[in-house]
């Protein structure tokens, strides 16, 4: 049994989704998506720039799970934002996915021209081909500018968040605005050091859970949508096996204490891609 969150436009999203950043196109992505759907995931998070939308679509079809039972997210890349290609880029993503709608379409980064891109996303939303629209890597000031200038609120802001960089102030601000938050690099990212932290395995031992499961549970209990990435079927299954235990307040506080305040990924106010 998974938990879901109802976004501000009424769309229901499973709280744990499979992330496929740095999952190579082809068999690796097809297998990760089918393993996830067979394990009970009903939420896949991709992006044009991950270059694996075609394989995500293939995995969905191969799984036999009904398309309407799956929550699919993709994202508008920076070059397309700058080139004002929002609507065309969206069509291209649908084509690669082999779908006639996505559940959520996001502005990937606040690149120059994101304000115009938001107009494109609103038109796409009005057409029904994205059931919800939102943003990613928006700081508080970006959200404030957007909220002041648009009637349609973003349903989500997808941002870097993990025990090492909790990003809690931004999460709290988004929640006050009825914007849900999705965490990328929720386990500390590819090649990260977080999962080797003995504090996490010690907490996990009390519940019979791994460090990764403790971290995913921590995200769930603070009300965040969490998008763990793995290319290994066993880990993919493990990462969804987090609904049969609850971290105590003391253990939540112990995970909170890991925060270094330093990002692993790019700074949304200073990126060059
Ligand atoms: P792999 O894909 O080889 O399984 P994030 O979601 O923060 O981006 O982190 C993903 C990283 O954590 C990847 O390197 C992934 O490696 C690894 N990972 C994902 N799930 C687990 C798990 N349950 N146990 C250990 N490592 C994991």
Automatic annotation (TrEMBL):
Domain of life: Bacteria
The keyword Plastid appears for this protein: no
List of residues binding substrate: 108
Domain NADP-dependent oxidoreductase, chain residue ranges per copy: 25-259
SUPFAM superfamilies for this protein: NAD(P)-linked oxidoreductase
Pfam families tied to this protein: Aldo_ket_red
Family annotation (Gene3D superfamilies): NADP-dependent oxidoreductase domain
A Gene Ontology molecular function term of the record: oxidoreductase activity, acting on the CH-OH group of donors, NAD or NADP as acceptor
Keyword list, A-Z: NADP, Oxidoreductase
Membership in a protein family: Belongs to the aldo/keto reductase family.
Protein name, as recorded: Aldo/keto reductase
Species this chain originates from: Bifidobacterium callitrichos
